[in-house]
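User: Quick one: structure for sequence A, then sequence B.

Assistant: Sequence A:
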Amino acid sequence: MSPPTARRRPGARGTYFFLSYAHSAPPPGGRADADVWVGQFFADLTDEVRRQARPVAGMRIGFFDQHIPLGADWKAALAEALGDAEVFVPLYSPGYFSRPWALGEQESFRARLAAAGSARVTAGHLTPVLWIPFPPWEAHPELDGALDLGRDVPEYAADGLRAFCMLASYRAQYELMLSRLASRIVHTAERRPMGPSRAPGLDEVVRPAPTDPDFVVAVLAPTRDRLPTDRDPAGYAASGRLWRPYGRSQQLPAAEYAVSTAERLGLSARTEDFAQASAMLDRRPAVLLVDPWIAAAPDAAAVLGRMLHGLREWVVPLVVTDDDDSQDATRWATAVTQLLHDAGLPQVKRACNMPEFVDLMPALVTEARRQFLKYGPVVPFEPPPEPVPSLRDGLPAAGSTVPTDPASPPDDPAPPRPHGENR
């Protein structure tokens, strides 16, 4: 991939820092995936940077992804924010390096730095923080830069900045680290500014989703050419997975928002029309987005009953309606909910507006994954094609070497997938 062109975007004034973090799955019964302590830290750091800074007119202090409007194109908004930021502040945690979304933000900013010029010009523009300590057996070269922020604060390496933010007993250390980090951000942004320039989108720097993804977002909605009589065609398209239930308030189809949520939680994901997804739904966790107007067609009850029969426990349905829609869907929402209950899915959620849809999605993705881990198919273990050597066969003679295949890749340290599936 060629580096992005380092050009100033018209009208852009810049941002002091961009905060990057690994989204965590909500706890049981929780809904939003935003880590409350990340939000608290962002607010505290913003206040401290503002206290130390002398920004030019129109320059923003800080950005993190909870600032993105609900209906926006998340990836486009992130690329724009990454292109405006002077300093990239990743909160390193064990989950950060397993989240393609978080790593994509970092790689996008690194590509922008590479296009900006020499290391002297770009020094200080990437300032990592140790958010949650790593287990001793997990090493990443990037951690040294994060530890550099608090070499003289022993508790920082032991407990991480998240503990400082959470616990009143660490208040003095927390304020010291906040002041130090803010000082570095202000120094870099004001004395060595890069100015806004293009940052590559996440799809340019993250590996494409595999053909057999971890997660599926299936959509059961009418297509534009098969709408119920008198149904407003706005929001419908040639494919169900392109359905936009909230019209102009969303820039992307509803399924794409659900996919983004799964990706932020570390799962590769893709969208499918329900009619084409049956094979994948048998072996992958999924969220099923249902337009209740699907139940308004003639003979819909019988047809949907056959389609929904046999859905697995790990397919979590969401009936999606719009309170601002002039055509009331209450009757059909009740009907399709009953059909889902009859198909053996007792927990059917409903989103009546865009904020509810966005708020529910992290919990639904997490619940589908939890059900899959509990009930998913067990893949039989396949022994290696050749017998594993035994120590009983004797050790090599002194001075001899064990033959190796130089073309063989090193062992994959990733843990096996649940139920015997190896990624």
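Sequence B:
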Amino acid sequence: MNAVVVRLCAVFGRSVALSVGMAAGIAMAGATIGAGMTAVSVQAATIDTIAKQAILLDLTSNTVLFEKNADERMAPSSMSKIMTAYLTFEAIKAGRLTLDSTLPVSERAWRMQGSKMFVELHNNIKVDDLIKGMIVQSGNDACIVLAEGLAGSEGSFAEQANRKARELGLKGSNFVNSTGWPDPNHYMTARDMALLAEHLIKDYPEYYHYYSIREFKYHGINQGNRNPLLYRGMDVDGMKTGHTEAGGYGLTASGEREGRRLLLVVNGLPSMQARADESARLIEWGFREFATYTLYKGGETIEQVPVWLGEQETVPVTVPQNLSVTMGRADRPGMKVSLVSSAPVAAPIKKGDTVGKLVITAPGFPGKEVPVVAAQDVPKAGIFGRAFAAAKYLVFGNSL
């Protein structure tokens, strides 16, 4: 059987069929193309950064807009606390903790140096306050109280963190503590940090608001959120800073504008000012130079694909979920969308069966392939229907 190529052109967020032609040289589409949180990489314009490691994602369409040494091991410093927060939120959602639960302060937590919430020795502190102390004040002491409360010891907590990292697909990370305190065996990559942050945003949206709190007062001490982009009026609403001598200054930040959510990770910057300015520059570039275009809504009929020996001659095809792509605004006029499918598709066909793929191309865009599925069942034709189809084929051939 040949392959049918239907060239589609996206117009104001929708697609219109322009032509149908035969193309035997195009491979049959049957396998699922792209799954999970694998991101498409696209870069519309040249940009660089003084950060040693960086990655910028559009979470709305799961697209990498920019990356630099994103798979290089780095000291994540206090950005590691995103994992501590993730496991804390997981425990709350599972009912093992509540925001009103209290946890005791050990001497180890009380003596911990670096950024502090200033917990009191042997006091019992509400989980809600500990979360604020960890996120807003970057309290190492708050992290240890949470880690000991969740796992009994910080060492056991690190084991939990590593199991969760493997579960979430973090391939270049290893945790030995809950705080990001310097240790040569405590490391992450920028890509892993972005993936972890993305999971927290999507898995626990009900708790993400903690990251936008600008200040928190505890033990008579008021401290401001260290995320500099919260104060710049640029739609950033989280997440976490970090700094160590080994890792330099880093920031994981996320913001939403006009329905698009971007996520940035930078590390290895030379100063707090460089961290603030460089992060703002990269995120603004992502919002300015790129746009996300919705091509089809999930369940919307894209086209009719011919059927062989079925009770009906065609089957409507669709995408299971909303399909959006992110590309450079300057590349948008040259975008082309083609539907490729084996032709005709043999019955019986079940609703949800993969029957082809959409191929999306544009100048400066690396291309994207998305599977399309049958929108309804098509039973196999009865004996008389099959005989009629065979006779029709003998007389007219494969006239699609």
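The first helix runs from residue 81 to 93. The CA atoms of residues 84 and 178 lie 6 Å apart.

User: Thanks, that's what I needed.
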